[in-house]
Amino acid sequence: MAEATLQDGYNTGSQTESGSGPMLAADGTPLKVSLARAMRRQKLRALMLVAPLFLFIVLTFIGPIADMLFRSVENSLVPDTLPRTVEALESWDPDSGELPGEEVYAALAADMSEAFEAKMHTRLGSRLNYEYSGASSVFRASGRQATQMEGGNYKEQFLEINPGWGDIGLWKTIYQFSGHYTPGYFLNAADAQLTVDGIKLKPDGERIYLYLFWRTLLLSMTITATCILLGYPIAWLLANLPLRTSNLLLILVLLPFWTSLLVRTSSWIVLLQQNGVINDLLVYSGILSDQNRLQMMFNQTGTIVAMTHILLPFMVLPLYSVMKTIPPAYVRAAKSLGATDWTAFWRVYFPNTVPGIGAGSILVFILSIGYYITPELVGGTDGIFISNRIAYHISSSLNWGLAAALGVILLVVVLGLYWCYDKIVGIDNVKLG
Amino acid sequence: MMTRLCAALGGVAAAALLSAGAAQAQDPPNCPEGDFELTIVSWGGAYEDSQRKAYYEPYMAACPNVTIVQESASNEGVAKMRAQAEAGNVTWDVVDLVAADAIRVCDEGLAMEIDHDEWLRPAPDGTPASEDMGDLIVSACFIPEIVYSTTFGYRSDVAEWGGKEPSQICDVFDLETFPGKRSLEKRIINNAEWALLCDGVDPDDVYDVLATPEGVDRALAKLDTIKDQVIWWAAGAETPQRLADGEVVMGSTYNGRLFSVIEEQDQPVKMLWDWQVFDLDGWVIPAGVSEDELPAIRSFLEFATDTQRLADQAAYISYGPARASSASLVGKHADLGIDMAPHMPTDPENSKNTLVYNYFFWADYRDDLDAKFQAWLAQ
């Protein structure tokens, strides 16, 4: 504000230049320059203070994530390993139903022997194998021999090394994935595939990801809902009991929070499996017959129960801190004005707790959407999440491009839901403590 | 390829019969000069314990200038090796991987190719290492260590079975004679082979059938017949736990895990060896490992993979040594004092019908068939 006034003063001064000239500071420099210098120094100092953290986050968090996300479209391996082949293939018509001509095979021979020296041919094979089964062994088998080929009639020599080189499907795949960037991973992540005839949905028996995304969202919402249902009364108790009792209860809420995730998950297996404690008790007390033990584990029920338990503190704590700040006088006032218990709760108390529900829900929902250890152990087949597939492609199949594409989609979906939440509830209306 | 591997494994088994018990010189390691710290990555649990007792501790006792740091990360070994290579910061020196993963890291250029005869000791009779290990060297980057198998265990006290016990793999698919839940691995590898065998496919044709879309459908259709009775496992410890709790009546897992349930924990569980699937586990060296570390890495690997050391490991866990020359040296369990030979997957009694993990088939078809299997699971 002070700056603005001074600036106005300066402007007025410069407009009436013929008179007094620009306003000067004590050392004779124009006030505006001197002020800007002082401000710049201050901003710089503030920036320096933030810089270490900022750099740390950029280097260790944003950078790696950006790099990982970039892999979802990156495809340089193919054009970099087979530059001549890719160029020669440009003149080939994949729809002709004929194998590429001799010049392509000649280019391939040159590329392959270079790739073999650099030990890139097997890497390329495993890359193309993600798109076309069998590519891996064709490339592995052909590396060494490509270096020993004689000039002329390369096509025949390649077909002799491995009949895979006579497979038009393999050539179409190389043709299709010859660019530096590819939409292939994203299409795969959406159960589609890139063919020379355009984008096609995969056959029925191979579609899985869209369904898994849907299930992940649905189960995460269910878990969030059960967390609200269970967490709300607990938080209310914590906020309204005398301090000594509520502190004890708070420790009970936090205790599982401090216990290893694997221990808690395994305990649920012990409790819920068909020969587990709960089923044994039900059978022992005669409620169930031995033949009709309940199936509560290795399905969606297992995932929902175990994850609700694990994530419950993330709901209870924000709710508790919000409820703690609601003066008891509000409800008393409502009652004294004639409200029933229910009206006092629903019209007065509950609206005050909405920021806590919002904060808890966001925490629980976002955490559960990315969980994979618990679903893997207790989810059986219908209780696993998309994150289980991402973990599989990162650590097992090494198809990092597909994992990255699945990750990008998950990120976009979460950001989209966050945006919806902001529009409906308002993100300002969230209180973490 | 498969038949040659079978023959090699048969050789291991036959040598076990000729248990001569010849006294073996305890060759000390050739210690490197200078101080070293080796990071050796393995699977944790009982398996890594057996390696510690048979390899790490004797080695460090003989070479006090080398410190071995253990890291249990082999289940994510491939991904982490790739991450280290891409970051240009290779911190691992030796990594224990299953053969399929070893082939994968070799294909990706993440592991070092080695000359087995130059690096490793010959057998006591002078046979070079490459012949002693034979076809078990499935990749130029891979130093085989043990032969293990994925096979079935079943509870021996199931009342509904009326005194009958499963004797062949197809009993897994027989819900009428042997009702109850089964525990199977949550991946198509092995399950597809067993399903096809029990659907009447000739053992020699299994992979030819599986390479066709109809063959995959056929395998999944067979698995469909028991799908609602299956609890899937992701970690090797799950089946033993489920068997012990009575949660399942039979299930597949690694033979060493079943040995531990049966012999060490004394549970009413028995082995079903029929059509066990042999697989290999061994060492790889990450490409890009520091040149300075190489002398220690070589010295350790030379020692840890010699004939005597491989046989020593079998005293702690029921996995077969990868050298033919080690078989005759396999003795008794270190704590239980029982003969280990009859518990080896390669024992002739146990290996009447066997499959060998088909590395090259699965390198080609794993991604495709896995997608189909996952879609089938989710249905």
Task: Lay out the secondary structure.
The complex is a heterodimer of chains A (433) and B (379).
Chain A: H1 2-15, H2 31-70, H3 77-81, H4 83-89, H5 102-117, H6 121-129, H7 135-147, H8 154-161, H9 168-176, H10 184-189, E1 192-195, E2 198-201, H11 209-240, H12 243-257, H13 261-272, H14 277-284, H15 300-324, H16 328-336, H17 341-369, H18 373-378, H19 386-395, H20 400-424
Antiparallel strand pairs in A: 1-2
Chain B: H1 2-17, E1 36-42, H2 45-62, E2 66-72, H3 77-87, E3 94-98, H4 99-107, H5 116-119, H6 129-133, E4 143-155, E5 182-185, H7 191-198, H8 206-210, H9 213-224, E6 230-233, H10 238-245, E7 250-254, H11 255-264, E8 269-284, H12 294-304, H13 307-313, E9 320-321, E10 354-356, H14 359-378
Parallel strand pairs in B: 1-2, 1-3, 5-6, 5-7, 8-10
Antiparallel strand pairs in B: 3-8, 4-7, 4-8, 4-9
Helix pairs in contact in B: 2-13, 3-4, 7-9
Strand content of chain A: under 5%
Mean pLDDT of chain A: 88
Task: Give the termini separation of chain B.
Answer: 36 Å
Low-confidence stretches of chain A: 1-18
Q: What radius of gyration of chain B results from the CA coordinates?
A: 21 Å
Order of helices and strands of chain B: HEHEHEHHHEEHHHEHEHEHHEEH
Major β-sheet annotation of chain A: 2 strands, antiparallel
Distance between the termini of chain A: 32 Å
Describe this structure in words.
Chain A is 69% helix and 2% strand. By secondary structure, chain A is an all-alpha fold. The radius of gyration of chain A is 32 Å and the shape is flat. By secondary structure, chain B is α/β, with parallel strands linked by helices. Chain B has helices at residues 2-17, 45-62, 77-87, 99-107, 116-119, 129-133, 191-198, 206-210, 213-224, 238-245, 255-264, 294-304, 307-313, 359-378, and strands at residues 36-42, 66-72, 94-98, 143-155, 182-185, 230-233, 250-254, 269-284, 320-321, 354-356. In chain B, strands 1, 2, 3, 4, 5, 6, 7, 8, 9 and 10 form a 10-stranded mixed β-sheet that branches. In chain B, helix 2 (45-62) links the parallel strand 1 and strand 2 (66-72). The two termini of chain B are 36 Å apart. The interface between A and B is large, with 38 and 36 residues.
